[in-house]
Amino acid sequence: MRVMGIDPGLRNLGWGVIDVSGSRLSHVANGVCKSNGVDLAARLLSLHRQLTEILIKHAPTAAAVEQTFVNRDGAGTLKLGQARGIALLVPAQAGLTVGEYAPNSVKKCVVGFGHADKRQVAHMVSMQLPGAVLEGPDAADALAIAICHAHHMQSAGRLAQAVAG
């Protein structure tokens, strides 16, 4: 199974792809899509095009996106939500079901602590994906989302087997 994790952002949209074989995780690729354009529509289109190219290149079989948190700046939250829409749309257009995880759930899954900082997340991602060169904190977060989704999918598969058997 190949899992793509996406950390939505209007300026920097992090992405990461891992392969999952049983309990073994391996790094495929990671990076950051930087939005181009002056107005919001052009920036969203830029993110859509970049993420679509990445999805075509790496052909994931599953995808996951971090849920948006609401902050004090309502306009900023709305713009982040629009970037998150792109992050959900691109894998859905490819026919993938998209998992969604709260930031604290991702951190708890990868680090063991729901309020870990970006440095701790990057460190644990590097530990779980030896040899991976992280393209920045947004890419590290995206890989963490992919790892979280892989763990949840494995747990769901074991549960389905236990119920069926």
Explain what you see.
The protein is of the alpha/beta class and 165 residues long. The chain has one domain (2-164): Nucleotidyltransferase, domain 5 (2-Layer Sandwich), CATH 3.30.420. The chain contains 5 helices and 5 strands, in the order βββαβαβααα. It has helices at residues 40-58, 74-93, 103-110, 118-128, 137-164, and strands at residues 2-7, 12-21, 24-34, 62-66, 98-101. The protein has a 5-stranded mixed β-sheet with strand order 3-2-1-4-5. A hairpin with a 2-residue loop joins strand 2 and strand 3.
Per the principal axes of the C-alpha atoms, what is the gross shape?
A: globular
Question: Over the alpha carbons, how many angstroms does the gyration radius reach?
Answer: 15 Å
Which CATH architecture would you pick? 2-Layer Sandwich
Could you state the CATH homologous superfamily? Answer: Ribonuclease H-like superfamily/Ribonuclease H
Strand order of the largest sheet: 3-2-1-4-5
- Fraction of residues in β-strands: 15-25%
Question: What order do the helices and strands follow?
Answer: EEEHEHEHHH
Name of the CATH first level: Alpha Beta
Terminal CA distance reads 23 Å
**How many H/I helices?**
5
* CATH fold-type name: Nucleotidyltransferase, domain 5
Q: Which structural class is indicated by helix and strand composition? A: alpha/beta
Helix content: 40-55%
Largest sheet: 5 strands, mixed
The number of distinct structural domains comes to 1
Uncertain regions: pLDDT < 50 for 5+ in a row?
Answer: none
Quaternary assembly = single chain
Counted beta strands: 5
Average pLDDT, rounded to a whole number, is: 91
